[in-house]
Design brief:
Helix content: 25-40%
Strand content: 5-15%
Distance between the termini: 59 Å
Order of helices and strands: EHHEEHHH
Number of strands: 3
Number of helices: 5
Largest sheet: 3 strands, mixed
Radius of gyration: 26 Å
């Protein structure tokens, strides 16, 4: 990516050097021994503060060669969002991986969810035998058309001159070279604990 033309980035052809994209960092052995999971989180958090080099392809692999409670090693993949989104790359890498027990067998993709709960079932249309039912049916379509028109007008107005409201998730413009530190934390939950909370709260209907 070249941004020398008036600060506007554009894609250009370049020569790929894998040594610039395959990174095996040296992590503090003391931190790895004390808490390997936190060492991974600290490395990823520090990685978010380092800008990507725009003079080479915007992706790199980081291999952390020390065991954690869930893996013998950890790979951190950093890819610019202009190349693709996270879910697409996760699906691609799962489809391209192989089983460690049987290298000839590819990893199985998770099946699509089956939406069989009553909330996902299509409600039957009430009979239009009476004039009141026919009037309510026509009124519901008028309300739908009105909301669609309002949403379309707001979308065009937002594109032209309106601004998004300020929320806690609104990006703060701190300059082009500012990279705020971000931390990604993961935790493993016991399924028995989840079931216990579900039974106590009674938030899921049991099928009979």
């Amino acid at each position: 990516m070249d941004d020398s033309d008036g600060g506007k980035p554009r894609w250009v052809r370049t020569t790929l050097n894998l040594d610039d994209h395959i990174i095996i960092p040296k992590v503090d052995p003391t931190a790895v021994t004390c808490d390997p999971e936190k060492a991974v989180e600290d490395y990823v958090a520090a990685l978010t503060t380092i800008p990507m080099d725009r003079h080479c392809p915007l992706w790199d692999f980081h291999f952390l060669n020390f065991p954690t409670s869930r893996a013998t090693s950890t790979m951190v993949l950093r890819i610019h969002h202009s190349i693709g989104d996270g879910m697409s790359f996760m699906t691609l890498f799962v489809a391209s991986s192989h089983s460690t027990n049987d290298p000839s067998r590819k990893a199985a993709m998770p099946p699509p969810p089956r939406r069989t709960d009553p909330i996902y079932q299509r409600q039957p249309r009430p009979p239009l035998s009476s004039g009141k039912a026919l009037l309510m049916w026509a009124f519901s379509y008028l309300v739908l058309a009105w909301h669609t028109l309002v949403d379309g007008v707001l979308l065009v107005a937002t594109i032209l001159f309106l601004c998004d409201p300020h929320t806690l998730f609104t990006r703060v413009d701190r300059g082009r070279k500012a990279h705020l530190r971000k931390r990604f934390v993961h935790r493993s939950l016991s399924l028995d604990d989840v079931k216990f909370i579900k039974n106590v709260v009674n938030c899921v209907c049991k099928k009979r």
